[in-house]
Specification:
Blueprint: H1 26-41, E1 46-48, E2 58-63, E3 66-77, E4 81-88, E5 91-101, E6 103-109, E7 115-121, H2 122-135, H3 146-158, H4 160-163
Antiparallel strand pairs: 1-2, 2-3, 3-6, 4-5, 6-7
């Protein structure tokens, strides 16, 4: 398993909806391991496959010392919301208040194709929503109110990496994809 480069804001893979996983094979298990290793090394609270250049519907999370992953997730959101700080490993060192559902029920599969159900509130709910958004080509800055979004875009333009546009990154070792976290760093 290995730590992989994380794609930054401006990379087109972050805006491309990911494809469903169809093969629950060794390559998928390697992808889950690489996502986990990369997320923990960053460190972040979550990481989605597009963030490492792989266009598949897979993400990992690390919340309250629990590490998990979901393949082909579907989320059901509560009507009750929370407003709180959120960042992204693909938008490093910037945090803005973002509104999310307070509770989430996520269903999908584990890396072996076994059904999986995850229920979360607060930080875990935020992580699941944030990573699932990555699978749809949505970034947390897209969910900010207009004033906060303008501030976020200005802050991105003022970073060294944002002013330069999408950085060059090495290709992902995963061949099964097309072609990416969470609330800043731990």
């Amino acid at each position: 398993m290995s730590v992989t480069d994380i794609r930054l804001f401006g990379d087109p893979v972050l805006r491309t909806p990911a494809a469903p996983v169809t093969d629950f094979d060794r390559e998928l298990r390697r992808l889950v391991a690489d996502l986990t290793d990369t997320m923990l090394a960053a460190p972040g609270r979550g990481l989605a496959a597009p963030q490492i250049g792989v266009g598949l519907r897979v993400f990992t999370w690390w919340v309250d010392d629990e590490v998990g992953h979901l393949v082909n997730p579907t989320l059901v959101l509560s009507d009750e919301t929370q407003l709180g700080p959120e960042g992204c490993l693909s938008i490093p060192d910037l945090t803005f208040d973002c509104r999310r559902a307070l509770r989430v029920v996520a269903t999908g599969f584990d890396q072996y194709g076994e059904p999986l159900r995850v229920e979360g509130s607060d930080v875990l709910a935020r992580a699941l929503q944030h990573e699932n958004d990555h699978l749809d080509g949505v970034l947390f800055v897209d969910r900010l109110d207009p004033e906060q979004r303008r501030a976020a875009m200005k802050a991105i333009r003022e970073t060294d990496w944002g002013a330069a546009g999408a950085p060059a990154v090495k290709a992902s070792p995963h061949s099964g994809g097309l072609a990416g976290s969470v609330f800043g760093r731990r």
